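BUG: 3D viewer hangs when loading the predicted structure for this chain

Environment: internal workstation, default settings.
Expected: structure renders.
Actual: progress bar stalls at 90%.

Input used:
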Amino acid sequence: MGQESTTRRVIRGSGRARARGYAAVVALAVAVPLAIPGSAMAGSAPAGSAGSESVRALAAGPPTPAQQWDTLKAKLTGIKGVWTDQAYSGSVSNSMPNTALLGNGDVGVTSGGSTGVKTFYVSKGDFWNANPSPKPAPVGGVTITGTTVQTGDNLAIGARATASSTEGSFTPDRAVNGQWGSGYEGWVSQVGKPQWITLDLGSVKTVARYVVRNDNAARPGNAAFNTKNMVFQTSADGTNWNSVDTVQNNTADVIDRSVTAVQTRYIRLNITEPTQSTTPDSTQNPRARIGQIELYAQSGGGTPPPAQPFREEQNIVDGTIATTMSLSNVPVSMKTWLAADRNVLVTAITSTGSQPVQLQASAYAGATTPNSAYSNTAGADGQVMWAERATAPGSRWVSRAALATTVLGASAVQAPTVSGATARTVFTLPAGATVRVVTQIGGGGQNPAAPHNDAVTQVRSQTTASLATLDTQRADWWKNYWMRSGVELGDAVLEKYYYAAQYFIGASSRAGKLAPALYGIWTTTDNPQFSGDYHLNYNAQAPFYGVYSSNRPDLSLPFHETILAYVPEAQRRARQDLNRVKPDYIGGRFPSGGVPAGVLFPVGIGPYGTTTDDQYHQQVSNSLFSASQFVSYYEYTQDTTFLRTKAYPFLSQVAQFFESYLERDSAGRYSLWSGPHEGTWGQNSSADIGLLKQVLSTLIAGSQKLGVDADRRVTWQNILNNLPAQPTTVFNGKTVYSLVTPGTMQGSDTRDIRPGDNTINLEFVQPADQLGVNSDPAKLRIGVDTLDAMNSWGQDNSFPKVFNQAARVGYPAQSLIDRFKQVINSHLAANLRIADSFHGIEKSGATEAVNSMLVQSDQGIITLFPVWPAGKNASFWQLRQKGAFVVSSAKEGDRVSYAEVTSEAGGTLRLKNPWPTGSFTVTDTSGATVPFTTANGVISVQTAAGRTYRIVPV
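Structure tokens produced before the viewer hung:
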């Protein structure tokens, strides 16, 4: 994780010289505190060829809000995840799920189930276990199914299951709940043999086929625990058993057998050899492990298809899941949604059949791979079902979260029944009618008391009218979210990635809630990889790389709070724990084991100031990566309150650490030893140096803005002036950016550049923002050559980095787009997330690449269409740039049609003339001419906060 290497998909391609013939470039300057002297009431350039009529039509400015929404809504409606089977592959995962997802920044909902069964797994962003170490956990779920057999129905679902023994929370009912999937563990017995599991079907049923899903079917690598020998038995009374089928010497992951049809109420698997006895563990500790039992009325291999066609859609336009399926042989449609700012989950079920149908709804607490230290309970309060889950007890907090579920609009609703950690009710859906299964999610956080009580009260207060209001508010929330900004790329692949990635970060992060961790807020097992935590050597920061320019900076606020909550512990670590970074180096420089002040972060942290992965990997950059997001928020918003109360105090702590940690030679030059990759060690790590420059530059400007720390400002400026340039080396005859000062890398791999690995050597470009399209052309050339030398386009860690970095250095536009699309096409999951085995929500960070191709802030200049192919149309509206400028523009062919800029903070705007052979005007929204000056082809406009300016060709 983080800066380590993972299994790589490297897309090979020959290096290219930088393409010529880029589209016309517009440049706008970020706000600066000093006005440019002088003004001019009109501006024009030498006359040239006129543009087309369509370009002239665009010159008046961006489309109206109504036009924007009509266009965008149509586009977003076509961008959706679609499933046509009920396998729900990847719904239960130790990483980020691959099925349909809903979220409101606090509650995450994951679509799952099986044939004829619809389940929504529920997680909560602040439902974290703390003992013995932090990690998020799922709360439970809501399941909807029919009560009568339909073609292809699994008769075992919901059967009353008992067993010879049970290990922890792996109870026998887990083998018949219909929730089986990747990573799932069902019933697990205690050690010993024989073992048995019995099912009570509730009434006599015809059984002609049975399926047993063994451990390795869901958890590859556990073939030794597959059932070897067993007998399939039936009974009329649950006491006297008839042996129907005997299985011997099985090695298969799935036992799928047809038998002579038998009428029976009770089924038993009598397991005489529960394991293969091929490993020490399976021999010495034989346990029965049955992931799922399925029973069917019809014989024949393979699970029969559902009676009605199945289709499910994840609609990013409005945050809904649409499902069509059959329940008890009656076709139904479902619309499932999550309220925008209330934790209410609603599934509206509409019968499209001609007969009434009896359905069952259940709410349960627990996980598909449960931690036995967690407790799961359920109950009923009148017609409301509830289920509550608590994390492990211990010295830290205990979190509790609950679901309370009721059914509105149904007839013949039965009183709920409770079994274990599941509560169920049965109801009738009349033909052509709609009922709503409504769930309130409550609790989470530290030490809440019995949250099911409040959840029951809240769900009981819901009515059809109140739900209609919540539904309207949800649709409005997503409309307002999408209207913050938009792009028109003329490229379906790029737009599909771009808008889906915006959906995931918008669904998982909201101000006032806990920040989304590695896998967003969608946790479906008790054992997420890497503790599902905040990995600070880029993973936790990367989801937010694109939110600032996308005009959604508020989405990053939960991340800032997570970091600030850890500061007291990070201060202690700087003083007392620094020696663990690299004992031989630290011990020689700091005999006390630490520095006097500042902050030191480990690689993995949890919420509320806790630690997950208590390692440093010889890195001191975790505070720097975190600081980059404080810098970006301030630079893009110019929020002085945020600067004063959040960013400046934190950046000061970061700087204090490095004031002590940096080495200084006799000439006053500074250097830094750290690990660019986890476990490496070298001088002047490229990322560390670039990020530290970003911190110091922001502190110097911030101290002037706030009128504080003049003495420290001198120190910071001295350090900044004497830090080394970004290290370079020569690779295949070309100068490229290296990981460290050449020749200083220590360890088993001493290469200065690691082709095919993740592009750490370019993190000074982004997120440190030390190089951009208006920088020294020679340095940009090195950046392009570095990207070609690295050839890391398909490397999993690189996805939220390399395309951003390529756009920032002006990589040849069409080549960049082609490489970007190749990775998107090869990694896009069914729910439109970029999937690999390790990473999750961080993949949203590459939206910054798209934005940076269209507009960039660099060297005080905002550049329009800096990395967009010549002759290719594109447009965007309301992309935010440094200086708190919100920019819209369009390009047809090679001609920029207009630029519209809203200045939120005031200051000076400078515009390079994009029409050197034509005339232009600068006006405000009323059409009044706005004064400007020109010098060296640059137009400068003094802006006022809150005003909008239009620059158009004449």
